Amino acid sequence: MTQTVAISQTISSLNEADSILNLQRTTEADFFLEWSEELPQLTEQEKQTLNGLKTRYLYYAADNAIAEGTIKIIIISPLLELANLCDPPLKIRAEKAVNIELEDREIKLQGFIDALVVQNKFWVIIIEAKKYGFNVSLALPQALAYMMANPNLDKPIFGMVTNGEDYIFIKLNQQTRQYDFSKKLTLSDRDNHEFYQVLQVMKRITTLAF
User: Fold this and answer.
1) In 146-182, which positions are buried (b, 16+ CB within 10 angstroms) versus exposed (e)?
2) Domains of the chain listed by start with CATH number
3) In contact, 84 and 90? CB cutoff 8 Å
């Protein structure tokens, strides 16, 4: 009899993700160039909007606590809007339920994606948001599990995890079961270059959906 278990309870480390989902982090330097090459230029208006989002985030962070729901409202939703991920032909799916069958283990993994952007059932970007102060790297195993639920195997899938301040992008090739990450980009960099790059990467990934 197949047992249904929560993804968050089953996969909490990269070693568990690799073992349970049969994944491997690639060592190929050119596997994930989308986060660092051919990035679109931002307009001055987009930069000013990002500057305002950073100011807003720091205002809330000064209380030393930001709820996950608040992070979604003050940071993630505006970023999705800026990256044009909310409008046709793309569409946001919030709290999307996912199921992964593991026949060899008689286990079905189940979970909910915080935000999913799709285009003709092609999953463009998954966003796994974590509360303020959470080490964003700890969300990577769970995000990989969610990404493995993508039914379209012919194209790579991209993801992003964030705690509002730090951002890591993911690329997964389900056919080869290989993945890799970007470096951690942070909103707290002094010149805002890395926060600008977050939006640039989101825009770059969006172009791959067409």
Assistant:
1) bbbbbeeeeebbbbbbbbbbbbbbbbbbbeeebbbbb
2) 24-96+112-207 (3.90.1570)
3) yes
**What is the chain's alpha carbon radius of gyration, rounded to the nearest angstrom?**
17
pTM greater than 0.85 (yes/no): yes
Closest CA to 140 of 6, 15, 31: 15
Output the DSSP codes for 63-122. Answer: TT---HHHHIIIIIHHHHHHTT-SSTT-EEEEEEEEEEEEGGGTEEEEEEEEEEEEETTE
- Other C-beta atoms lying within 10 Å of the C-beta of residue 102: 16
Cis peptide before 141 (omega within 30 of 0): no
Convert the pLDDT of each residue in 62-105 to its tens digit. Answer: 988 888 889 999 999 999 999 999 988 888 888 778 777 776 66
Instruction: Report residue 210 as tokens.
Output: 């067409």
Sorted by sequence, the CB contacts under 8 Å of residue 208 that are 6+ apart come out as 34, 124, 155, 158
For the segment 119-128, what is each residue's pLDDT rounded down to a tens digit?
866 787 778 8
Q: Taking the mean position of all CA atoms in its chain, how far away is CA 55?
A: 23
Give the dihedral sign, CA 83/39/166/176: positive
